[in-house]
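Can anyone check this?
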Amino acid sequence: MSEINDKLVEFVRTALSFELSGEHFYRHAAEITQHPKGKAMFLRLAEQERAHGEEIGALFASIIGEHEWRRVSAEESSHPHPSALVERLEKDVAARAHGEVADDAQALRLALELERRAILFFDELATHTGDPALVEVIRKLADEERFHYDFIQGQLDSVQNVGVWMDSAEFRVDGRF
């Protein structure tokens, strides 16, 4: 296998690991989240991460070959994902053990960290990739992770009732708009 292909296979492994980790984490978060809408949100995110894995698979099967893709995918799928994040979540939830909102907020904070890491990985990868078609796919994946990050941040703001900072006045006290 050429050096380029070795680098590509390593990227495939890392990207697939992110998506498998995300799916596993979100399914676990759905199990421990108390609120039905929170459960539904985490399950929806898990499904989106699974779909991202399929997108990565289709792309790289066409580049590195179906046989090589299946081999890499089988190897990555055999590893537990994401043991460190799930362990941290369970530890934080056990330590707090005083209310569903605290547990939900912690799950959301960890979800933000997961998405942040994925964004940084994809952004960094795009700067080291010369193939314009591959860069386009990588940037699309990064944008989807940014959407997840923003969505989760909004959910965290809502759960914590802190809202969002505004860059201009949305209203005036005297009633004039």
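Reply from J.R.: I decoded it. The chain is about 80% helix and 0% strand.
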